[in-house]
Amino acid sequence: MKVKCYIQGMAAISPQSTFEGDITNMPLVRTESNRLACIEPDYKPYIPANSLRRMTRILKMGLTAALKCLAESGVSTPGPIVTGTGKGSLQDTEKFIKEIEQYKETALNPTPFIQSTYNSVNGLIALQQQGTDYNNTFVHRGFSFENALVDSMMLLQEGYTHTLTGGFEEITPEHFYIKSRIGHWRTEPVANTDLFNQELPGTIAGEGSTFFVLGAEANEHSIAALSACKLLYKPDPMQLTATLRELGADADLIISGTNGDSNHAHYYHLLNNTLTQPSIPFKHLCGEYETAGAFALWLAASLLKAGTIPSALFPMVQQLPSNFKKIVIYNHFYGEQHTVMVVERV
Amino acid sequence: MAERVFITGMGMVTAIGDNVAENLQHLRQQKSGLGFTDYIDTIYKQVLPVGEIKLSNEALFNRAGIPVQGGFTRTTLLGLVAMLEALQQAGIRNLSKEPTGFINASTVGGMCDTEKVYFDLINPEKEGDFIESINTLDCADCTQRIADTVGFHDHIATISTACSSSANALMFGARMIKHGMYRRMVCGGTEALTRFTLNGFNSLKNVDKQFCRPFDNQRTGLNLGEGAAYLVLESESFARANNSTILAELSGYCNANEAFHPTSPSPEGDGAYAAMKNALAMSGHKLEDVQYVNVHGTATLNNDVSEGRALERLFGRKVPPFSSTKPFTGHTLAAAGAIEAIYAVLSIQHGIIFPNLNFSEKMEELSIIPVTELQEGVLIKNVISNSFGFGGNNASLVLSKYEG
Amino acid sequence: MEELKKKLKEQIIEALNLQDTKPEDIDDNAPLFGEGLGLDSIDSLELMVLLERQYGIKVEDPREGRKILQSVQSMAEFIQSKQQPA
């Protein structure tokens, strides 16, 4: 979809110090295991204690990033709330499956069931902010967040002044193990800074919660403009090349979802061959997960706002461009869902 | 102005029928699909009634016309059966001829099958074929397998907003058409019964041990069901150019959040009221133009009070005939919105109002009662179809007779 | 009875994760819902789970549950009535 909208506020909880920090002097958090975990903020300033007591990790991360994002954007009501999540609350799903077994289907606590529902974060945001507008949750792997973006862009065209749009994901030790059984992760530990040294099967797991207030018009809060979001399902190389050319020919910086996974690296090679502009990776910062595209959008907007690329975060990139106005993000999730976003300076 | 959106194909499978015609037949015969489960491994086998489709997975493979193979969960298979009918009815043989998006809905993905092997999945000492089911854990798996089997290769998405999921899928698809992104979309949802959801709703103490009694004073809860339904949506200009058979118009819709409670609706039905009111306003029709409301009517204590109050607030003393079809199918969660959208189209096409089974006593909180007898030969031009979910997610659709 | 109530308060705090609450903060007769501890309908379901898991008492009807769960006092009385052979 090609419609221009404006990022009026944003917040990210990630394995980096993104929640509080300023990207220009943010240290790179180095990791040694293949499972990157979020640096969680203190939730108490955001969520009343009486609500906090029941909430599991991703609910807290989802709600808190949404609330901070709203506060930064200067809007008084959230407007429509649209999110994407590949896995929802894993902790709650795992807990409920186990309790069914443990208690032999009797005397079950309903809370994990309620919270395992994929739209529970949306419900919590609406509840805490009294957001009575449109509310939707997309749950389609690497298309989850990007479908939320498409939905939001349509809503802005339909007359809403702004939307609250986000993506959130968690990885649990149990789910990390499950996905290791189908080769999602590297078999040997790799430091995030060494992820791109060689292409081997698998990558590193990550998680995050990233929210944006998207506005139809530019205003004093505008951080960057999102001008296109395109989704390609299992594209053939020609289709992908054509889309990258169409959206990326005049970009001056590429943000690539490359993740060192030799099983699906050929798409990123195709990207490098098609768009030869300077390129930076981002998966060493957040790991691989379904809604990592939301982190990439946060990164693009942060860089456009800062006007510079902090070298501390990209030690593996030899030469970082100093002047850039238009960024193209290309990402795919295990070779199936491919997405291209265009982000521009306001 | 944006294009009108027409329904040009429908396919479904529920506890009362493996296709649209059988569903219509059993609605007319007032034959409920509720009973006890043959396929779920639960201590509630003979305790909690469900709306189960009495076809084994092998039989479903057969209906879907594909060989028995790993990775295809019951959720996927039910979806495929409904999808094949929808495409066939719309006369779509080759999806490559016209770019067509697919918006699916699911609440728990392939849980029906993964819950049976979950403890093996997390046990390093267990090896076997079950490992190929790992990807079926999420909600996108069924969507992609359905898409790959029938040949969708354009925009795909999966929506999960609990019990309103497929109503939201229809809305999203209709909006993509109105925005000119596609001329044709296929939208709906699929849901298989699981031990997970059965125990989930039972832990909320809102599952009835009897057949559910929507809008009855003695109601104590819902019965779960399974099913799948898809509707082919086309823009007016495409439907005309393509010479499509237009079954009805999706003339209005609204999704409104209630912001009241994680699972319970508000006592005065604020979300339901807003969703119905705005959907009707969008359709351009007036309150008196609505001849039938297919209510969400789960028969939980809270839903029926809330939804009933919303009807009374919106329509005042002239609440149109309304009924819940959940006593036929059970509550099919993610599939319910699409299943009931098809029932609304059938109501318009055949001039029928379906009875609300198992009703005997007016609710003390309300002054209205549902339709309890089958009504035939009624001129039905506009139907409101309600789907409300956890997280305060309220969706209403307006389906209208196509009159050129 | 006093011992039962003390234990019950500890169990309520643990089950509902009332982190900043101590057993002595809960008055025997104070309403658990709404004004008092500010509990809601999901908490009431969790308290019914507590009764079932800790005391083997099953409350089937949520409407009945509301009466039993009015206060620690009413919960304790209900438990005692169930434990004493009729």
From TrEMBL, chain C:
SUPFAM superfamilies: ACP-like. It holds the Pfam family PP-binding. Residues 1-83 form the Carrier domain. InterPro entries: ACP-like_sf (IPR036736), PP-bd_ACP (IPR009081). This is Acyl carrier protein. It comes from Chitinophaga dinghuensis.
